[in-house]
Amino acid sequence: MTIQRVAIIGLGLLGSSIARAVSQFIPEIATHGFDADAAVRERAEKLGLVGTMHETASGAVAEADLVILCVPVGAMASAAREIADALPDGAIVSDVGSSKQSVLDDLSAALPGRTIIPAHPVAGTEQSGPDAGFASLFGNRWCILTPPKDADEAAVAALSDFWTRLGARIEIMDPEHHDLVLAVTSHIPHLIAYTIVGTASDLEDVTRGEVIKYSAGGFRDFTRIAASDPTMWRDVFLHNKTAVLEMLGRFTEDLTALQRAIRSGDGETLHELFSRTRAIRRGIIEEGQDDAAPDFGRKDHGSAG
Ligand SMILES: NC(=O)c1ccc[n+]([C@@H]2O[C@H](COP(=O)([O-])OP(=O)(O)OC[C@H]3O[C@@H](n4cnc5c(N)ncnc54)[C@H](O)[C@@H]3O)[C@@H](O)[C@H]2O)c1
Ligand SMILES: O=C(O)C(=O)C[C@]1(C(=O)O)C=C[C@@H](O)C=C1
């Protein structure tokens, strides 16, 4: 099947990046857009993000062969219900949500009998909104598809082709496995960043000014991550609860072991762990997954500005 018209629901960082990437890399595909926030619709119109802006979600999807829901994971169910009656037969419904099992469950409940293929482009920044997006966001990044077991193979192939043309590398995964992997590689790192920045700002003897003044190194990197969108991340933790709590249990045990090593002066344990983690970082760079790797001229969002 050939995708000719894509409807993008939600025109923030992810939705506006898809819109920009489609017009740059696959201009033959017509773009239709909608956002629940009137101010975002107005801004998207000014930026010329999509070929046609709509005042309703049902208007945006009415002629689409691919619909991509680019809303927080807690809003997937209501966004899906809004398009249910207007969705053309055979249209693929996908999304970009950061957790996948809850999205598959929500979309399947709201859109019974429809072609649902959830997806997660593992690419983003700490920014949000229609001005924050850019066409090269997905270049050389993974896009993980989590189709249901009985998914239409032609639809999976069409969606894979769409993301490949935006520059992404495709991986197919079971949604439960996705949620476990991303809990470790993305969700818990965000939780740690939110915690450490919150802890530092709560310390009575460290003024806010000092936190900013002395945050030149590692802490500065944490402040970038901790500046990420509160609504998006609240929803991720509430919708990937099981995997996050499981991984958080493992993490807490490891943290306690390190605490013990520091207290007892066990330098060998500390050195062994730090050597192992250094090798992992080097492996990531060799794999070409680091921000320094060439990737469609991606904007540098690697450090706090
Ligand atoms: N930010 C990232 O780094 C990143 C990366 C990959 C995936 N994601 C996922 O992408 C999705 C969107 O995130 P974002 O960073 O683009 O957020 P964003 O805040 O920049 O944009 C979300 C947009 O959705 C709109 N919206 C909310 N509910 C809606 C509804 N029912 N109908 C229509 N529009 C609605 C909001 O008005 C907003 O403009 C989330 O599910 C997030 O988990 C984010
Ligand atoms: O680089 C960042 O700022 C991100 O947080 C991007 C990031 C990630 O954790 O890697 C955040 C959430 C997404 O679902 C995918 C990508």
TrEMBL record:
Q: What is its EC number?
A: 1.3.1.12
What top-tier enzyme class does this entry carry?
Answer: oxidoreductase
A family per Pfam:
PDH_N
**Which Gene Ontology molecular function entries are recorded, alphabetically?**
NAD+ binding; prephenate dehydrogenase (NAD+) activity; prephenate dehydrogenase (NADP+) activity
Q: Which GO terms describe its biological process?
A: tyrosine biosynthetic process
Q: Which reaction does it catalyse?
A: prephenate + NAD(+) = 3-(4-hydroxyphenyl)pyruvate + CO2 + NADH
Known pathway: Amino-acid biosynthesis; L-tyrosine biosynthesis; (4-hydroxyphenyl)pyruvate from prephenate (NAD(+) route): step 1/1
InterPro entries, alphabetized: 6-PGluconate_DH-like_C_sf, NAD(P)-bd_dom_sf, PDH_C, PDH_N, Preph/Arog_dehydrog, Prephen_DH
The name under which this protein is listed is prephenate dehydrogenase
